[in-house]
Each structure stands twice: as structure tokens, then as C-alpha cells.
Design brief:
12 helices, MetI-like fold, globular, mainly alpha, single chain
Length: 309
């Protein structure tokens, strides 16, 4: 016997649609209110966010807004000073500096975001595993982290690139490796406090598996320090990418890269054409400055001990 359709189905659907719209509106209003409060309370962080957004837009729209081909050579226009035709001048090959600067932002952001995200995520995993299991597992992880953290970032990055060779992928790996132990240490310190919480013991007592406890209950509670470290290392990753390119271990000619622009003609023609070194130097400084400002403000916003009434 077939069941007759209920008369309340259309009304029920309307109520469900209205409920979803209300939740979407509430979420949008919440996000907008949080953004407005962040801008009002932390103007320096908002300024850093503006720099980051402009950098992302410049990289995404480089093909559209670049006045010239970044690798096209014109020896008749070599070493021209900044002008209307070339706002940041040209290099010794006649290539437009502004176009190379805009396209170089792509490599800097690609290496910065991928290496920081990969290194911070692996550090999160190792930190949570060490904090949860403790004992010999934690001891083994921490001894490896001690070895990696004992060297400066640039030293490990140079060693990895020297072993693997130049290239974007190898540069990402080289920057990812030294980020892992620094994030793992911070996440582990937060995870040691979380693992002693009663709800973790309750989950263990009812037989919940370790992976579920770690990634369902521990990771959300250590996500704030993870996010802070991620934003902090973004600026350092961009600076490391530029440093490796400057040393000849990163992107190679003729691909545009900020460190590469500083290394070659920026130093060779420093007195004759100072704009070749000033333009990429200012771009690197602004990128690092913007990420550091935003990261510090994000830390203040997420750390309850630093919040003000």
C-alpha cells in the first residue's frame, strides 16, 4: 500500500530553505563583523593584509597588467632610467624591470605558500604524534628535531639545494625541511597540555583509536599556534627563496625572480643603474614586512593571553 504524501512537505521545505539562508546570512555577518573588528583593533595587521592582497593580485594578474614581456630583450632600450614607458626602468638586456618584478611575485608566492604550508603541516603532525604518544616515540622525534633545529634556516636550505640541484621544486623542499622542527616544537608544547585534558582520557577509556583522538580532538586545539607559525614562516620563506636565488641556487635565467634580479645586474650596475637593485629589494622588504605584520596581529588575536578587553 503506497503512502500518501504529507501535506506539510512544501511548508517543511520552505522552512528548511529559510533556515539555511538565515545560517548563511549569520555566517556572512559574523565574518564581516570579525573583519571590521580586526581592522579597527589592529590597523598594522590590516596594513599587512593589504600588502599581501596586493601582492597576490599582482602575481595573479601579471600577464594582464605587465606592460611588456618579462623575458623579451631589446638592446636598444638597455639600462633606461624610470620613465613613462618603463616605470621602473630596464636592465642591460632591455627587459622591463616592472614586468619582471610582477612575474617574479609568482615564484615568490608559490615557494612561500607551498613550503610554509607543507613544513607547518608536517610539523603539526610530528608535534601532535609526539605529544600524544610520549615516551620513546616522542624522544625519537625530538632528537631528530634537535638536529634540524640546531642549524640556521639558510644553512639547511643551502645544503638541501646543493644536494638536489637548482629548481623551483628543490627550493620548496629546501625551505620546507627547516620549517618542520620549529613548528613541531611549538605544536608539541601546546599538545602536551591538551593530551592531559579529561576528554582525551574519556576518549581513550571508551576505546577510541589514537588517529581519531589526535586529529579529531587534539589538532583543533593546537590549530591556533599552527596558524600563527604558518603566517610567520611565509615571510621567511619568501626571504629564503630570494636568498637562494641570489646565491645562484634557485631560479635560473631567464626566468624572473626577485633574488636573481638582485644577484646579477642589480649588483653589476649598482652605480650606473641603481633602480635594478632598488626595485626587487623594496619588493622583498614589503612582502616580508606585510607577512610579519599580519602574522603578529593574528597571533595577538588568537592568543587569549594577549587579548585586551
Amino acid at each position: 500500500m503506497s503512502r500518501a504524501p504529507t501535506a506539510f512537505a512544501p511548508g517543511h521545505d520552505s522552512m528548511e530553505i529559510a533556515r539555511r539562508r538565515f545560517l548563511e546570512d549569520t555566517g556572512w555577518r559574523r565574518s564581516r563583523r570579525a573583519t571590521r573588528d580586526f581592522i579597527r583593533r589592529r590597523p598594522l595587521g590590516a596594513a599587512g593584509a593589504v600588502i599581501i592582497i596586493l601582492m597576490i593580485l599582482a602575481a595573479a594578474l601579471a600577464d594582464v597588467i605587465s606592460p611588456y614581456d618579462p623575458v623579451a630583450q631589446d638592446f636598444l632600450d638597455s639600462l633606461l632610467p624610470p620613465s613613462v614607458q618603463h616605470p621602473l626602468g630596464t636592465d642591460s638586456f632591455g627587459r622591463d624591470v616592472l614586468s619582471r618584478l610582477l612575474h617574479g611575485a609568482r615564484g615568490a608566492l608559490l615557494v612561500g605558500f607551498v613550503s610554509s604550508l607543507a613544513g607547518s603541516t608536517l610539523g603539526l603532525v610530528f608535534g601532535v604524534i609526539g605529544a600524544y604518544f610520549g615516551g620513546k616515540v616522542d624522544e625519537a622525534i625530538q632528537r631528530v628535531m634537535d638536529v634540524l633545529i640546531s642549524f640556521p634556516l639558510i644553512v639547511i636550505a643551502i645544503a638541501v639545494v646543493a644536494a638536489l640541484g637548482p629548481g623551483v621544486v628543490n627550493v620548496i623542499v629546501a625551505i620546507t625541511v627547516p620549517v618542520i622542527p620549529r613548528v613541531a616544537r611549538v605544536v608539541r608544547s601546546s599538545g602536551l597540555a591538551v593530551v592531559r585534558m579529561p576528554y582525551i582520557e574519556a576518549a581513550r577509556s571508551i576505546g577510541v583509536q589514537a588517529p581519531r583522538i589526535m586529529f579529531r580532538h587534539m589538532v583543533p586545539n593546537v590549530f591556533a599556534p599552527y596558524l600563527i607559525m604558518l603566517t610567520a614562516f611565509l615571510g621567511q620563506a619568501i626571504l629564503l627563496e630570494a636568498s637562494l636565488a641570489y646565491l645562484g641556487l634557485g631560479v635560473v635565467e631567464p626566468d624572473p625572480a626577485w633574488g636573481l634580479m638582485l644577484r646579477g645586474q642589480g649588483m653589476q650596475f649598482l652605480e650606473q643603474a641603481p633602480w635594478l637593485a632598488v626595485a626587487p629589494g623594496v619588493a622583498i622588504s614589503l612582502a616580508v614586512f606585510g607577512f610579519n605584520l599580519f602574522g603578529d596581529s593574528l597571533r595577538d588575536a588568537l592568543d587569549p593571553r594577549l587579548r585586551t578587553a
